Amino acid sequence: MAPRNVVGEPTNDEMGPVDMEEVPTTELAVRPHQKLVWRNVILMSALHIGSLYALTLIPTSHPLTWVWAIFYYVVSGLGITAGAHRLWAHKSYKARAPLRCLLALMNAAALQNDILDWSRDHRVHHKYSETDADPHNAKRGFFFAHIGWLLVRKHPNVMEKGSRLDFSDLYADKIVMFQRRFYRPLVLVMCFVVPSVVPWYFWGESLWNSYFIGAILRYCVLLNATWSVNSFAHLWGTRPYDKRINPAENLGVTLSAVGEGFHNYHHTFPSDYSTSEYGWHLNITTVFINCMYYLGQAYDMKKTPAKVVQLRKLRTGDRSS
User: Fold this and answer.
1) What does the domain layout of the chain look like in residue ranges?
2) pTM of whole model > 0.85?
3) What contacts 315, CB < 8 A, 6 or more positions away?
4) Whole-number pLDDT of residue 246
5) Where are the alpha helices (DSSP H) in 144-282?
6) For 209-218, how does the pLDDT look when each residue is reduced to its tens digit (9 = 90+)?
């Protein structure tokens, strides 16, 4: 295993769970009128309809197209998990410029907002988890946590409390700002052109099948896998590290979201680069980061000591493991 920096239990300043005393209890009951973002409603509806149609094309497509779609699913997923999430949002490890450039491209292939916006929302989510300042507050129900939060205007508390956090490191990162500046053309190429052209060029797949399977279906499934961390993993599962919080260990989410389903651990120890006490097991993202370490591209990975983890499990866990 790669050497790592050890870290202790996180504080709120390290993006741990918010101290509920900071948030008035009446805040959780506030439900102002939410305006629909019709552009998002229409686009998400069209995407899911297109994905259902893509399923009908699978029997007539080349088997390598299926393999390619799965491979590119993992590649684009790592742009979120290893990139926007573990590297930029949590700073749980450091990466050299070539890896950061690669992750920025992979992140564009995932089309889930640029690195700055994604990381900013995620830091707010950790600081104010399960309150109205949480962009995808799971206490507002499964649908809202999964996709509904993207279909309405953000709650005013998200903007107000988010403005209190420090994002200067993101604005100072030239690669993050470059990706933000050229995000639209990067998305066009990485999310739609590349996954469509490769099957057509290399094994003669039709552009129609390539586009709907490699781009549309792959993108839609990836979105839902990412959203499942906000919904399924915040509502169902075990809580061996902290039974007082909503985030839970969810095996289904772990498998679909390339290793991000160890969510009770992650919210308890947010600075841990592996997001799990089990290292690389069932955690493709951790395997990827470790490989990058051996290639000299990742370093200073933070890891919570096993003793700290065990003591925390005894103190606040649900004794499920």
Assistant:
1) 4-316
2) yes
3) none
4) 93
5) 149-151, 156-162, 168-172, 174-181, 183-187, 194-203, 207-209, 218-230, 232-235, 251-256, 263-268
6) 999 999 999 9
